[in-house]
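Inverse folding, one chain.
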């Protein structure tokens, strides 16, 4: 059966771990502040705020100085309208819930499948020569219907500060030009900026969060 055409970006999807280790579905629960005013979709990247809660990471060519914490894959909270425990694919902006817990893939060794775009949500492709290069994030808005992210990557080059590293292509997504519309990426390590480690995954920053 033919591999489905990648028609639009869908965020970062856990694939496996560095070295080919299987991803077993493990996540860490992290608090979202009651009333936090931004949608967070499954496949979006999140960061730690100063108060220890998590927020959506909006960086593209660079990410927050203290680094990202992982990829959001769902949330649970007591619905303020029904007073019932609710499990959702995304965090609706402004939700008032004192018990909100996000599920986050926080392993810095995790690899993710992601779509390549030319800009916005326009699917593009890249070749084998991109393996080992870095990439920028494209922060498209997710869907409140499906709860899924629309984050993608582009800007593939060797710039040190770019947050993602391409480790492989998804062979099944080869297009008629011999390029691949999906790749496998990992977090880059923090880089030095004015003698301070910045960007990359927060767990790899020596100064901590």
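Residues assigned per position:
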């Amino acid at each position: 059966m033919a591999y489905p055409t990648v028609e639009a970006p869908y965020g970062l999807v856990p694939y496996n771990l560095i070295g080919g280790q299987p991803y077993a579905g493990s996540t860490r629960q992290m608090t979202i502040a009651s009333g936090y005013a931004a949608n967070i979709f499954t496949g979006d990247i999140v960061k730690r705020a100063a108060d220890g809660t998590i927020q959506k990471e909006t960086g593209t060519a660079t990410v927050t100085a203290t680094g990202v914490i992982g990829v959001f894959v769902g949330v649970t909270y007591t619905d303020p309208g029904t007073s019932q425990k609710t499990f959702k694919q995304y965090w609706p902006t402004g939700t008032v819930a004192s018990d909100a817990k996000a599920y986050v893939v926080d392993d810095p060794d995790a690899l993710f499948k992601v779509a390549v775009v030319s800009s916005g949500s326009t699917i593009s492709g890249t070749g084998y020569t991109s393996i080992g290069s870095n990439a920028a994030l494209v922060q498209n808005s997710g869907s409140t219907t499906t709860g899924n992210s629309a984050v993608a990557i582009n800007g593939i080059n060797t710039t040190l500060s770019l947050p993602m590293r391409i480790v492989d292509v998804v062979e099944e997504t080869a297009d008629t030009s011999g390029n691949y519309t999906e790749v496998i990426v990992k977090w880059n390590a923090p880089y030095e900026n004015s003698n301070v480690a910045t960007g990359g995954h927060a767990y790899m920053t020596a100064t901590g969060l």
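The mean pLDDT is 94. The radius of gyration is 17 Å.
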